[in-house]
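When time allows, look over one protein, given below as sequence and tokens. The question is which stretches look regular and which look disordered:
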Amino acid sequence: MEQTYAIELHNITKRFGSVTANEKVDLEVKKGEILCLLGENGSGKTTLLNILSGALVDYKGSILIDSVELKELNKEWWRTQVAYVTQDPFLFKGTVRENVKLGNLSASIEQIEKVMDKIGILYLADRNIDIEKNDLSGGERQKISIARALLKDSAILLLDEPSNHLDSYTKKWLIEWMRKSDKIVIFTSHDKDLLQISDMQIKL
């Protein structure tokens, strides 16, 4: 399998002890489609993204990737297919440029700086990230995570509340990128601007 063209979820249920995060979730999304997951806090939106990313494997139900069960796929291959922007981006010690490069270690400096420029963080390229001080703003951290995901250029893009902390310019750019993309895009949000570009909305 070289590229993902369709994802199907059937009766996906995930429990943490006595707490049910997802119960019998069904959905289907194909290449070029944008799916928005809606729901109140605690409704299982992030849990579902974690399942799709491969981070959570202890669930009930079936996930088919181009008609093949996800649990039967090579885990390393699946990681190449998915880019995931979490609500609380994890950054590593090093420069901002080096953090973005982690999305695609074979990317050239030109490719890295091009995506950083589009997202509006090129001016931060040589900034050293101090994990203990955490001296970057929430918006800067979010932009680094988005740039890293876009540089990966994977078949599937998962975004958990992607417009949080973003300025209006970057949000507008991201919306246009998603609108033109031929990838499978699944995101959580209550942002009306983002909801308008979704092909489907599923409430959890």
Observations:
- Residues 94 and 148 are 14 Å apart (CA to CA).
- The chain is about 30% helix and 30% strand.
